[in-house]
Amino acid sequence: MTDLQDVVDSVYQDLASRIGEGKLADYIPELATVDPKQFGLALCTVDGQVHTSGDADTSFSIQSISKVFTLTLALGKIGDGLWKRVGREPSGNAFNSIVQLEQEKGKPRNPFINAGAIAVADVVLAGHLPKEAIGEIVQFIRYLADDETIAIDHDVARSETNTGYRNVALANFMRSFGNLNHPAEHVLGVYFHHCAIAMSCRQLAHAGLYLASAGRNPLSGGSVVSSGRARRINALMLMCGHYDGSGDFAYRVGLPGKSGVGGGILAIAPGKASIAAWSPGLNENGNSLLGSAALELLAQRTGWSVFGQ
Amino acid sequence: MTDLQDVVDSVYQDLASRIGEGKLADYIPELATVDPKQFGLALCTVDGQVHTSGDADTSFSIQSISKVFTLTLALGKIGDGLWKRVGREPSGNAFNSIVQLEQEKGKPRNPFINAGAIAVADVVLAGHLPKEAIGEIVQFIRYLADDETIAIDHDVARSETNTGYRNVALANFMRSFGNLNHPAEHVLGVYFHHCAIAMSCRQLAHAGLYLASAGRNPLSGGSVVSSGRARRINALMLMCGHYDGSGDFAYRVGLPGKSGVGGGILAIAPGKASIAAWSPGLNENGNSLLGSAALELLAQRTGWSVFGQ
Amino acid sequence: MTDLQDVVDSVYQDLASRIGEGKLADYIPELATVDPKQFGLALCTVDGQVHTSGDADTSFSIQSISKVFTLTLALGKIGDGLWKRVGREPSGNAFNSIVQLEQEKGKPRNPFINAGAIAVADVVLAGHLPKEAIGEIVQFIRYLADDETIAIDHDVARSETNTGYRNVALANFMRSFGNLNHPAEHVLGVYFHHCAIAMSCRQLAHAGLYLASAGRNPLSGGSVVSSGRARRINALMLMCGHYDGSGDFAYRVGLPGKSGVGGGILAIAPGKASIAAWSPGLNENGNSLLGSAALELLAQRTGWSVFGQ
Amino acid sequence: MTDLQDVVDSVYQDLASRIGEGKLADYIPELATVDPKQFGLALCTVDGQVHTSGDADTSFSIQSISKVFTLTLALGKIGDGLWKRVGREPSGNAFNSIVQLEQEKGKPRNPFINAGAIAVADVVLAGHLPKEAIGEIVQFIRYLADDETIAIDHDVARSETNTGYRNVALANFMRSFGNLNHPAEHVLGVYFHHCAIAMSCRQLAHAGLYLASAGRNPLSGGSVVSSGRARRINALMLMCGHYDGSGDFAYRVGLPGKSGVGGGILAIAPGKASIAAWSPGLNENGNSLLGSAALELLAQRTGWSVFGQ
Predict the structure, then answer these.
(1) Which residue of the set A53, A59, A67, A210 is catalytic?
(2) Coil, helix or strand at residue A246
(3) Interface of C with A in 87-106 (CB under 8 A)
(4) What single DSSP character describes residue A254?
(5) Residue D144, SS3?
(6) Where in chain D are the domains?
(7) Residues 6+ apart with CB under 8 A from C15
């Protein structure tokens, strides 16, 4: 099957009967109110083709997918200095575990578990007020997606702020080890707001295209990062992008990807395409059940697995 | 640089001044006696070209690299049933840690940490005497490498048998959870012997070629595994092949790989080539220091990283 | 040696040459400024005799010793209901470890590790403003010591408030599991202030006398708790009163005791006496080095070990 | 109530209706075949009185209670040198956990968890054949109980030998850290056999009397250990004698004690008496359900809690 629109459509069709499966994230109250019967796909190729199916233009809370973009920003600010504060290894633990943080003296295992992303937010915050840092992140994502309408869902941000005790614990725990330079509430303000950014599959696939395309955005022509940095971010996504289900995603799908508890997944086929899948129901690892299944089918039908055809 | 022989030679030359760096494995007495000043590279392409440099024809103890081949055998025997007994996630711990095993009730995180490979050996042993199972593994590797001279180094096997208390602990611990079907000493007999197989870089690159080539051995023309299985083994190698340094290897090199404490590394560039690097000195994660550096350079110069050019 | 004043004096004399040994607590800045060359002892018998030696009338920060008094208050408020929220087992971990808290879903192991004492403060806070709860604790201790001059050292309280990130983490972590009913900053306000209460050895020995005397204060004649409750608080002190050095204290001294990082220790000889020792230098477990040594000698010379003569 | 025979009888009567409660140990097959409807009590005072009730003369498998006697022997052999190999702190973990052992590099937390008792057996074994060491332990216990009929239940010993994979793991794990001087199978031979010693409540209370009586056996007049050593063994029993239920036992009963999965408990009232309780059904911590309840009542009615009346 070589026509990509056909592939995207066939994946959607083959899974349409399962729409609504999985379990909504319930620890962020606002996310628990989302209609579970939604499913969207979008695919942007490195030569600028866009293919969508289903609810590809409905906005959803990107949650942890935003960590890919804040990591990109933080690397732009301090480069490899980031790795003094955050590791690059899979965690072997749940996304919000604090055990590892105690054993490794406040250094999070990687930038995609919560603690690591909070440290990344601390880097993005440097020299700014929280409001400015949040603004910078939103502007960066708008630039990547070439879409000025992308915005924060403030109900979601507020919902997290009120219930995110575990993240408050993680931030203060890191601070007790000297691995946080700003007050925890400022850093978490940045963190909760970038997690609350709302995007559609189309916008997300567009925004991630620089990772598929050696660091450049082929639609705008602009360079976002070096090809080496794009490659390394992809490596981090593959190793750590799905929490304690990262191995399973690599095994089944074979593409670098980053999921969010809002039900979205951004996957990268290096040299080929950026792909966004979304459906709110989650599997036992907290990753989109239908989104994972869609990417598995899509990788099979395109032969895009990085591990061979 | 497009001539692969030139690439292999240039990598060797650029690192030649560092030969001898790193630390020999010392917990297996026989390995501590190896001359550290050795360094070899071999690369087999999917169209059958072979390129070598340095000590590419010197045999060394493949140690944990053998786990790739026993995994292939065990999947051939019981297929996905294996995943009831062994997980597919990175461990986030040292290669011989027992902590994870207690927390997850005797199920090892993946087939490449010691506990997982012991469970795999238990599968290969089913219906056989230990001697027969060891023979089957050796025959399989000879077939893959098309070389009947490959053999076990019995001094190394004996060296491990006498000192491998930690592995005896792991095996009995799994058995206490019912995740070992044969007596621990039988399973460890198989395990210690397959780890003690000696191969050269040339033989190893040849033996791994099926993983680069959709499951078929292009030199002999035979099919070893399905293309899907080759892909999935590659995924496991990338996620878990370098113990607690897997993330770092993915970040720097970007190829599925499996290291052994004998100083060897087998790396796979899917659709391109199988590559073996060897130098006995290890880095702090227990992976070949020069071997890792060689593969990093080689991936850069060939553009073969699975994460993009 | 039967004259208790002679015992107290001899213990002081035998250790006087070591005054200044140990390491000041440095994680609370205000405590790091204390003169380390101080050493005091006070002993109150159940029949109302008081014996002191050295700096027995110098006030110091009682820190975690205050947890004995807040535990007594919390048990008075909700009785055995407390044990739904806090365990009664030794922790096998450092005093501020968060690992156990994750494994046991937010329930601290005992009321004397930081997390447990924070949960106890949450109980004392119920129905009050933080200021009122703090006032109640101070009044209770003044009543126990029969001394209205006992007060909070606000410099110390402020010093902890500014640096207590680890405790903020613990509190929020418990709150994420639903094991904290009030805002973390309110509970920690109570916690930091009761830890900052300043007392002399004389006052402390007097205040703890109810635990030696079946729950009654023999000096005032009043009943504080039932004899059964006094006995059980003593059991908790013996099992958990010295963090990860509790076993060592039981082995060497053989008396229920509670230490604080200010260098104080309150020890109870049931049916005999309440004893306070203080010297700011700490041993590797964070307990007063000279205080521990003094209590070991005193237990030997009086034969008061609960484990036999 | 001052007549001790009345106390013992009343405790038995008050619990008789609950005989059979609890769960038999099932991980040692031979123990799972014991009749659960048995309950015995025996109490020896330091002045040589013996009081019993119920099945006080029925032999049962003392299991971990034997660790008190092997600890006494090992201290006799190498004194405080033992504490280089074994700690003295509660474990905060299950009796057969291996996690702590990895974190603390092969040094068990205390001599009463399995790993610690295996290290103790290694000390007793020094200079002997396993058979001789076992013989020495049996002779020592016969001497303590003044009863030559005490013997090993070889069916139980065999039952453990065949299924004790977890203990094999612990022993080899310690050996991998250099904390075992003899082959694991020799040490475990000693360990499994001393755990399989069978004794009645009457014999056990008699054997433990030296701990209640300052190290001397008042019935025979002989000195077993110094008074200081008896005191310290009592401290260890209180802190660590009931695995992860030690805190609960101290809180409820308030006496040093050591339990075994055969349903027996030896408790010491220093200066007063040695007490043995036995009933095979266990509570959730693996300690005798009725035995614990009996000792709680007995401590209440005698006022013998070490924590006050």
Answers:
(1) A67
(2) helix
(3) 97-99, 101-103
(4) -
(5) helix
(6) 4-60+198-219+227-302, 64-197
(7) C39, C290, C293, C294, C297
Neighbours of A80 (CB within 10 A): 9
* pLDDT computed for residue A24 by the predictor: 93
Of the options 1.25.40.10, 3.40.710.10, 3.40.50.300, 3.40.50.1370, the CATH number for the domain spanning A64-197:
3.40.710.10
Q: Which residues make Cβ contacts (< 8 Å) with residue D237, sequence separation at least 6? A: D68, D112, D211, D256, D257, D258, D268
CB B287 within 8 Å of CB B259: yes
**Architecture of the CATH domain A4-60+199-302:** 3-Layer(aba) Sandwich (3.40)
Tokens representing residue D55 in the block:
């099945």
Q: C4-62+198-219+233-302, which class in CATH?
A: alpha beta
B163: burial class by Cβ within 10 Å (0-12, 13-18, 19+)? middle
Q: Write the residue in D102, D166, D172 that is nearest to B97 by C-beta.
A: D102
Average pLDDT for residues C197-203, to the nearest whole number? 98
**Residue type at B64?**
S
Q: Are B159 and B30 in contact (CB under 8 A)?
A: yes
Predicted local confidence at residue A105, as pLDDT:
87
Hey, what are C124's tokens? 């004392």
Instruction: State how beta strands C50-54 and C40-45 pair.
Output: antiparallel
Q: Is C199 left (phi over 0), alpha (psi -120 to 50) or beta?
A: beta
Residue among C128, C159, C129, C157 at smallest CA distance from C66: C157
Distance from the Cα of residue B102 to its chain's centroid: 25
A111-160: per-residue pLDDT in tens? 999 999 999 999 999 999 999 999 999 999 999 999 999 999 999 999 88
Amino acid present at A57: D
Distance between terminal CA atoms of chain D? 14
Q: Match domain D4-60+198-219+227-302 to its CATH number in 3.30.450.20, 3.40.710.10, 3.90.1150.10, 1.10.1510.10.
A: 3.40.710.10
Percentage of chain D with pLDDT > 90?
Answer: 85
Chains with 3+ CB–CB pairs under 8 A to C are: A, D
CB contact under 8 A, A169 and C173: yes
Q: Decide: C219 and C48 in contact? Cβ < 8 Å.
A: yes
How far, in whole angstroms, is CA A65 from its chain's centroid?
1
- CATH code reported for the domain at B4-61+198-302: 3.40.710.10
Say how far apart CA D212 and CA C205 lie, in whole Å. Answer: 29
Instruction: Copy the structure tokens of residue D87.
Output: 């700690």
Averaged over D193-215, what is the pLDDT?
97
Average pLDDT for B132-141? 98
Q: What is the interface pTM, i.e. ipTM, of the complex?
A: 0.94
Catalytic residue chosen out of the listed positions D159, D243, D253, D292: D243
Q: What is the pTM of this model?
A: 0.92
